[in-house]
Specification:
The complex is a heterodimer of chains A (161) and B (397). By secondary structure, chain A is mainly alpha-helical. Chain A is built from ten helices and no strands. Helix content of chain B is 71%, strand content 1%. Chain B has one domain. The chains are: A mainly alpha (161), B mainly alpha (397).
């Protein structure tokens, strides 16, 4: 069978491909995590690892258990849909041990403008101000109660906690 | 904000696809173009271009080895790139491209070069000494059969590989156009013509690159340039360039006629920020000038002296390479200069000595020439070395 003899080098080249493919499969077996692809194009075990992370946020229900007065003001104002920890930051540790972990109050001069600084990218009916002209760097809570920001709508300004 | 006019969304101010992403389709295009030139001789039996056949294959390989490097530099985590092969993602065009690249590299280019050079490889493995001998020995894969029948089989298989290589080359570069053409959020890119335009501009740039390399290397080797060969290459380059230019103009006319909501914004950009790179460099200097010169040569070939034709070809080849680079620049950079709001424009500030800067881009453009130099030393494509090798005694199993 001279055809096989004279084409022998082609089989060698093909064998090279087969060997490379087998090496690829072996390497793939070791480097691809076992749980990859179980739910989708990612490592399924990552879900458990993420779930095992310590909780950072307490949730607004935990806040409302102790701060019922603030919760009432908050529920009546324009910010009713904004979660406590969206402004105050993650406070699971404070909720677990309120006496020894005291959260720092946010600086309203920098916090409020994150959402309310005038920008053409925001919807037109969203309350926006040019803070430099509007307040000249004064903390917003001088006039507004952040928990119910419309002036005259909630508790006296300046006392928000 | 410096460099920003009008309104830009925050994520549009800085360009994320840098000059390296311009370089990537450019280099991939040179690969596809060089291979198409090689296929002219092999499949379409254009004997006149035979002197460039092997050089075209080696050029394609040298540039293909370089092609993924701009992406690696851009992404910055080369150790993650094998993941693309280990965990294939069928719905990601970019992920699937890894397989197209590997197929084209191994099953088409390396295989075809190996088949074409096998006789020389075997002879050199017997003739050379030391490390070179070892390299050639490895390249023979342990088979020294270069009998007439074995070489005949190589010839037949090589023809089939080239035939498969043509659609593969189209796939390779069509994909690059597809990546841009399929981005429906960007009106500058979103066009089904994009892959086709990319393929034809790739062909013309690859043919120009191989022609220039052939002329330059022949000059360096103090040999005579085969005028029948370069005249034929120039003819094909002219024809392909006419089609390429027509398609690009068709795309332009289509955009102007359609004049959708993005048109005013894009039109303004072409008249301002892209005026120099698109109108002046790409269209006027890079396309109309070489087209006119090549047209004159086609019509009055017999009245133009050899030396004048050579100079025209070198000028046209260089202008075409610049034009195609400008086209990639205008697509990649141009597509990121305007806001999706169609109300503002930003500026691309190229860095200098950073991972994605000008120096990295220059280095990655010159690197394939280094690869080519090694390939030329290892597998000389010249006829004189072939005749030298032919003097060696043939051996068979």
């Amino acid at each position: 069978m001279s055809i096989f003899k004279d084409a022998g080098h082609l089989f060698r080249f093909a064998a090279l491909f087969v060997i490379a493919f087998l090496v690829f499969l072996v390497v793939r077996h070791y480097v691809v995590p076992k749980s990859f692809g179980k739910y989708g194009h990612y490592r399924a075990a990552a879900m458990d690892e993420i779930a095992a992370h310590p909780m950072q946020f307490a949730g607004h229900q935990a806040c409302e258990q102790c701060h019922s007065d603030v919760a009432a003001t908050h529920a009546s104002g324009m910010h009713a849909h904004v979660n406590c920890e969206a402004c105050h930051g993650p406070l699971a540790k404070h909720a677990d041990d309120p006496s020894s972990v005291t959260p720092k109050l946010p600086d309203t001069a920098t916090l409020c403008v994150r959402c309310h600084e005038a920008s053409a990218a925001r919807p037109k009916n969203f309350p926006q101000v040019k803070s430099a002209e509007h307040s000249g760097g004064m903390p917003c809570q001088t006039c507004h109660n952040p928990h119910s920001p419309a002036i005259g709508s909630g508790a006296a300004a300046g006392g928000a906690k | 904000m410096s460099g920003v006019e009008g309104y830009m969304y925050p994520n549009e101010v800085t360009l994320f696809w840098s000059v390296l992403i311009v370089l990537y389709p450019y280099i991939t295009g040179l690969v596809a173009g060089a291979f198409i030139l090689a296929s002219l001789e092999r499949v379409f039996k254009v004997d006149a271009v035979k002197p460039t056949y092997r050089l075209a294959l080696l050029t394609a390989l040298a540039f293909l080895l370089d092609a993924p490097l701009p992406l690696q530099f851009h992404l910055g985590h080369p150790e993650r790139s094998p993941e693309m092969y280990f965990t294939p993602h069928a719905t990601s065009a970019m992920a699937m491209f890894g397989y197209v690249y590997l197929w084209y590299l191994m099953a088409v280019l390396v295989f075809e070069i190996w088949l074409d050079y096998r006789r020389e490889i075997v002879l050199r493995s017997q003739q050379t000494k030391g490390l070179l001998r070892l390299i050639y020995k490895i390249m023979t894969l342990g088979s020294t059969n270069i009998s007439e029948r074995a070489l005949h089989i190589d010839e037949k298989v090589g023809w089939v590989v080239t035939l498969i290589g043509i659609p593969s080359a189209f796939m390779l570069h069509g994909y690059v156009g597809f990546i841009f053409g399929s981005i429906k959020a960007n009106p500058w890119w979103s066009s089904p013509l994009m892959p086709v335009v990319f393929i034809f501009s790739a062909m013309v740039s690859g043919v120009a690159a191989v022609m220039l390399l052939y002329m330059g290397l022949t000059k360096l080797r103090k040999q005579t340039i085969d005028m029948r060969c370069v005249d034929t290459i120039a003819m094909y380059m002219f024809y392909i360039f006419v089609i390429d230019f027509t398609l690009e103009m068709l795309d332009l006319v289509h955009r102007i006629y359609e004049a959708d909501e993005s048109f005013r914004s894009i039109d303004f950009m072409v008249h301002t920020k892209l005026f120099f790179s698109q109108i002046v460099v790409q269209i006027l200097i890079g396309t109309l000038v070489p087209l006119a010169l090549l047209f004159i040569v086609q019509v009055w070939k017999n009245n133009i002296s050899e030396i004048a034709r050579k100079r025209i070809y070198v000028l046209c080849g260089s202008l075409i390479l610049i034009s195609v680079f400008a086209m990639r620049w205008n697509v990649v950079i141009g597509g990121q200069l305007f806001s999706k709001s169609f109300l503002g424009y930003t500026t691309y500030k190229m860095e200098l000595a950073t991972r994605e800067g000008l120096l990295a881009a220059i280095g990655l453009t010159l690197l394939p020439l280094g690869f080519l130099w090694i390939l030329l030393k290892l597998l000389p494509p010249w006829n004189d070395s072939q005749s030298h090798a032919a003097q060696l005694p043939a051996s068979g199993d």
